[in-house]
Amino acid sequence: MQRKPPEHTETLEFQDHLEQFPDIQPQRLVRFHQNADLYWQTLGDQVMGGQSDGTLTHAEEGVGLFHGTVRLDNGGGFSSVKADLPKPFDAANYTGIELLARGDGKTYKIGLRNSTDRRSIVYQHTFTPAAEDWSRIQLPFSDFIPTWRGKTVADAGPLDTRNLASVSLFVSGRQAGEFNLVMQDWRLFRS
């Protein structure tokens, strides 16, 4: 069952929140628009024999829907999407990513890379948005954990926020069943 996308007034609520801080110029890292310059690729557990599926679509202007089904058959258990940024993005003057999201009780991860190479380290941050109401989620860059194929990489340096090259979204941890995550544009915030 797909959740109904937010009303336009909910998008404006996020704008109203930002207008309380006129000295901060909001910067979008990810835009969910039909004409956005990001191409989202599906990367699922099929590489290891799994049968999960998932996709990211634009539900309406400024709203993205990450949805599909995680199946545990054949050693599977995750679904993800990845997009390369049009050019490397310098986020060094920001603290992290902020988004409004409504979920389904499942835990999700946002991933950032300093390279467009799929074999590069992914810096991940988990979040669990509320299922019924919109959650305002802030993910500080300093809390992103370096990973390789879902495992923590102990000797990796911190995320280089001066050179963000790709973004990704995951549902993993063997959370079986349908998943639906509705999000508004990912913005950068300062604290």
Automatic annotation (TrEMBL):
Pfam families in the record: CIA30
InterPro entries, A to Z: Galactose-bd-like_sf (IPR008979), NADH-UbQ_OxRdtase-assoc_prot30 (IPR013857), NDUFAF1 (IPR039131)
Coiled coil (UniProt feature): none
Domain of life: Bacteria
Gene3D superfamilies hit by this protein: Galactose-binding lectin
NADH:ubiquinone oxidoreductase intermediate-associated protein domain: residues covered: 32-182
Protein family per UniProt: Belongs to the CIA30 family.
Name under which the protein is recorded: CIA30 family protein
Native species: Marinobacter adhaerens
